[in-house]
Amino acid sequence: MIRFSPKPTIIFILLFFLFIPLTTTFAENKGFIEEKQKIYDDADLLSTEEIAKLESIANKYGKKRDTNLIILTTNDTDGKGFKKYTQDFYDEHLDGPNAAILTIDMGDREVYIVGFYKGEDYLDFDRIDLILDKVTPKLADGDYYGAMDSFLSLSYKYLNIKPGINPDFILFKFEAQIIISLVLAGVIVGLMLYHSGGKVTTTERTYMDGHRSRILNKRDVYLRKTVTRRRKPNNNSGGNSSTRGGGGVTSGGHSHSGGSRSF
Amino acid sequence: MVIHYKCPSCGSDMAFDADSGKLSCHSCGRQDDIETFSDEYITRTFTEDDAKEYHCENCGAVILTDTDTAATSCSFCGAGVVIADRLSGVLAPVKVIPFSITKEQAEVAFKKWCKNGLLTPKGFMSANRIKKITGLYVPFWLYDLNSEVEVHAEGRKVRTYSRGDYIYTETKYYDVYRNMDLYYKKVPVDASKKMNDELMDKLEPYHYKDLKTFKMPYLAGYIAEKYNFDDKELFPRVRQKVRKFIDSYIGSTIVGYTSVSYRDKRIDMKKDNSYYVLLPVWMVYYDYDKQEHTFAMNGQTGKVVGRPPISYGKVAAWFSGIAGTTFLSLKFIQWIVGAGL
Fold first, then answer.
1. In this predicted structure, which of A86-90, A142-146, B134-138, B155-159 has the lowest mean pLDDT?
2. Which of B28, B71, B73, B305 can pair with A198 through a Cys bridge, CB separation 3.0 to 4.6 Å?
3. Per-domain residue ranges of chain B
């Protein structure tokens, strides 16, 4: 008789499905374009050396993630608003490939992040919100270089984490992993030690005479109820709220994700 | 052995009446069938020819054997100074569970148990240093108990829901009442001062289907310890033991609440009956690392209890093994979903 073990097959199938999203993403030939300029500092926020540094970082990270990491700064969006300004920029300069764009509108003091294609899948509103959490305070402090650097490194990080997973999920934190491992090992070994001398295997049922034991009387009477209410915790309170609905479709027909904040 | 039949009505001694073929009471005239007469009212005491008693001069243990078995050393402290004494008039056990595991089987079972020890040192696992195995009948009291339980409690059901900008927490309060009549049968408590209570509790359960009416030949080749506490002295212990059972039973009848707080719990526990029984235990004395370790094995089921030596190396190995594997698994999951390392 041929014995067939299902385990390896199941694992193989699972792994296969896990890797499909990765392979399909790379299969689309809308990736990184090395020769394209990445930093467009129209608002003159950076020095020449800083621009050169950011260019090289954007190219290094972008190449690895197959996504164009673009930074735009402007003093004035020609009356279009930062959203339309960014969309038009994409249609004009890129028109197709994967991209993540950071737009800093110094005129309206707004910062806007959008993702196209792979960028749209990987940088959804929640992740953009996380990036804005880091970027906006630096912009408010006038640390433009630091803000841009954060954008590049966080985009680089998030573009490698499967869409839909919270990058700040507690189990992905090194400290949490260490603590969970140690606590679990401690509990298991503690139980082993505790039980090494033999376990109590009797329960409350062992000696109970089920034939004669009876419940003579029971009552569960509803008395009263109390209701307390509290306001829902509001993440978008105060000055650091991101505007939802930053996503949309460009005139050229490219759909994108997005989120903005004022600083 | 002398058997006393106590009259269930007036407490006087009953005698066998040859005319009616029944046990009859001279005081009140009650008659009972001898075959169906309840064990509860039968008292057996040893006579001089039944049993011998040994006192250990070293640790004070008192052990009983049949007149043919000679104890040469104390089975508790190992001292060779035991003084034999005739005994008569001492209360004899009502029931006994005979050994169903022989000495050879006990040795095999013990060795197997040693090998299964995940945290015990390597040398201990080979289990070739058994110094002595003694079959010992340990005195226990078995209690039949009736408890009337009355419980008043407050149950709370908590529900949260959100409507509009608010999160609402709704708590419903219930008045919970339970009145129960609970019976527990043959709850064992060891009556030996020498035996560690915790150890003896872990030896349970014994299966009572093998419970036999005590006869002297069951003792042949084994020794029995004389009980140190009578059923009245041990009642607080059995009460405490059953109290835990009752508490968890009460909990199991109050379900469906988020939380329950007890306002009043009245447990009225009465002893219906108590039996003096002997339960079989193999005592295993084992030398390891110049230290003697004592283990007890249930002589009916083979369950072993007792603190084995612990290898700190193995504890460390298990700890780091589990911690390491967990950490790597978490990292692996993180890598699979592509959340970086």
1. B134-138
2. B305
3. 2-86, 104-310, 311-341
Residue A34 in domain: no
Q: Are residues A111 and A139 in the same domain?
A: yes
| pLDDT of res. A131 | 92
Asked if residues B199 and B296 have their Cβ atoms less than 8 Å apart, the reply is yes
**What whole-number distance in Å separates Cα of residue B130 and Cα of residue B293?**
10
DSSP three-state, residue A241: coil
Tell whether A79 is covered by a domain: yes
Q: Do the Cβ atoms of B320 and A185 come within 8 Å?
A: yes
Residues facing residue B13 across a β-bridge: B6
Confidence of residue B45 (pLDDT cuts 50, 70, 90): confident
Do A149 and A54 touch, CB atoms closer than 8 A? Answer: yes
- Residue A31 is given by DSSP the state -
Asked if A47 and A128 sit in the same domain, the reply is: yes
Nearest to A197 by CA among B117, B308, B309: B308
A124 falls within a domain:
yes
- Three-state helix/strand/coil letters over A103-131: EEECCCCEEEEEEECHHHHHCCHHHHHHH
Q: Cβ atoms within 10 A of the Cβ of A104, count?
A: 25
Strands (E), A37-153: 39-41, 68-74, 99-105, 110-116
- Asked whether the beta carbons of B76 and B194 are under 8 A apart, the reply is yes
Q: Which residue has the tokens 């209360």?
A: B91
When divided into structural domains, chain A yields a total of 2
Contact (CB<8Å) A223/B337 = no
Range of the domain at A173: 162-193
Q: What is the pLDDT of residues A95-107, one digit of tens each?
A: 888 999 999 999 8
Q: Residue A51 and residue A57: Cα distance in Å, rounded? A: 10
State whether A200 and B315 contact (CB < 8 Å).
Answer: no
State yes or no: cis peptide before A167, omega within 30 of 0: no
Is there a single domain that holds both residue A180 and residue A135? no
Distance separating alpha carbons of residues A156 and B340, to the nearest angstrom: 11
**Other Cβ atoms within 10 Å of B179 Cβ, number:** 16
AA letter at A172: F
**Under an 8 A CB cutoff, do B174 and A206 touch?**
no
- Contact in structure between A149 and A134 (CB atoms under 8 Å): no
Q: Which residues of B touch A18 (CB under 8 A)?
A: 336
- Distance between CA atoms of B117 and B308, rounded to whole angstroms? 8
Establish if B118 touches chain A: CB-CB under 8 angstroms.
yes
Residue A119 inside a domain? The answer is yes
Interface confidence, given as ipTM, is: 0.71
Query: Same structural domain for residues A187 and A134?
Result: no
B-chain residue closest to A18, CA distance: B336
Task: Give percent of chain B above pLDDT 70.
Answer: 91
Average pLDDT in chain A: 83
Amino acid identity at B56: C
In the predicted structure, residue A62 carries a pLDDT above the cut 50: yes
B242 touches chain A (CB under 8 A): yes
